[in-house]
UniProtKB/TrEMBL annotation:
Residues 6-64 form the TRAM domain. The active site is at 413, 413 (nucleophile). Pfam families: TRAM, tRNA_U5-meth_tr. This is 23S rRNA m(5)U-1939 methyltransferase. Belongs to the class I-like SAM-binding methyltransferase superfamily. RNA M5U methyltransferase family. GO terms for molecular function: 4 iron, 4 sulfur cluster binding; rRNA (uridine-C5-)-methyltransferase activity. It comes from Seinonella peptonophila. S-adenosyl-L-methionine binds at residues 288, 317, 338, 386. PANTHER family: RNA M5U METHYLTRANSFERASE, TRNA (URACIL(54)-C(5))-METHYLTRANSFERASE. Keywords: 4Fe-4S, Iron, Iron-sulfur, Metal-binding, Methyltransferase, S-adenosyl-L-methionine, Transferase.
Amino acid sequence: MKQKPPVKAEEEIKLAITGFGNHGTGVGKYKDFAVFVPQAIPGEQVSVKINQVKKTYATGQLIQVLKPSPTRVKPACSIFAKCGGCQLQHIDYSAQLNLKRQSVIDAFERIAGISDVIVQPVKGMQEPWAYRNKVQVPISVDRGKLIAGFYEAGSHRIVPLEHCLIQPEESNVIFHTIQKLIKEANIPPYNEQKHAGLLRHVMIRRGTYSGEWMVVFVVNGKHLPNEDKLISHLTNDLPQVTSIILNENRKRTNVILGADNRVLYGEETIHDQIDDLTFSISPHSFFQVNPVQTEILYKQTREYAGLTGSEVVIDAYCGAGTISLYLARYARKVYGVEMVPAAIADAKRNAMLNHIDQVEFVCGKAEKVMGKWFDKGVEPDIIVVDPPRKGCDPALLHAASKMKPKRFIYVSCNPATLARDVALLTKLGFTLQEVQPIDMFPHTSHIETVCLMSRTENMK
Ligand SMILES: C[S@@+](CC[C@H](N)C(=O)[O-])C[C@H]1O[C@@H](n2cnc3c(N)ncnc32)[C@H](O)[C@@H]1O
């Protein structure tokens, strides 16, 4: 018979924090019952007020740190305790990297039953601030007034954006100027509960190497009021903005961008550079958010691929073709697949921009296209996958195994789905060789991981 949880909501308890949970929370056991506490650190003794009690665990609010961890530091951001954007600013950066590495090791052990894998120390940043090249700011109403900022952790309440430290300073300046202009223009903010009002999000994207900036207004409608006047003020105040887009999103949804874009000013895309390659990026295309670490991530992928120039490579979930083109310079042929049409259009344009012709890009679901490539007799030496957080569809992993590549490289932003997929891949004939975590998202609980798998010898 299952025991009743030993805690109640609102109860205050003392807890020893012994683990690090998925979202960067501290975890302790209270009478053998797991309690998750944001902003508590493994090794600490804390007092906690219980918020929610579920069947198998509870969550609590940190009331007091009774015995602090030596890794505890003062968060640099004044709204860290409220804003849901960062989870780890209270932990010294090198300790963040150790905890993230351990979370990858734990995921392999707990989910895949793999305990003997080599997980390298995390490759972190020298300067772990001001790294994000993209910000998506929700707009809402608070007591009749427009409010813009970031969501509080686990809610859609907005904490006003003042000065975000993981964005470059210029991004903060651009955002505040836009906020002033949209307030002056009396643009009706979106009300999520009522699905009424106009302006839902402002997305700001930076081409780090080109210096170009894109601003996307996401609206529950077709136009902004006095559009021409707003654009004229915006481009006057912010000459670095080279692309202004209106994105129409009339759905009652959490998905930020709607399907349709209209260019209000300048170009449809901005440009950025990785290594010596130039990329054109449109609003709907995925592009890694940390340009410094992207170079490290792609270099690692290339190293694991061990390319000599004669290989055929598949890059599944290829976005704007960045990994495909990065690797194509060292391979005979690269096939890329991606389901967002705008990203594939970017990928094809990027191949031309960089004069790379040994690539073939297909728009479609990777799990379907891989099967078609197998039927057509495509024989990759190397398969690279870089799926979204939910990981790979099993159909893709089965098709990959039938193709018998020598190496399978898994780039992942979610250790849990990575471990789940690696467990299946080991059953399908691959052996996990090495794992390299890379910190693409300092001060948040997220960690990127590159894994090298090779075909298990003597398997049929
Ligand atoms: C993590 S991003 C990786 C993009 C690219 N490799 C890069 O480094 O910029 C994942 C990509 O997978 C795409 N995607 C998601 N599900 C997919 C599917 N079932 N088939 C193909 N692409 C998919 C997304 O649109 C996104 O571009």
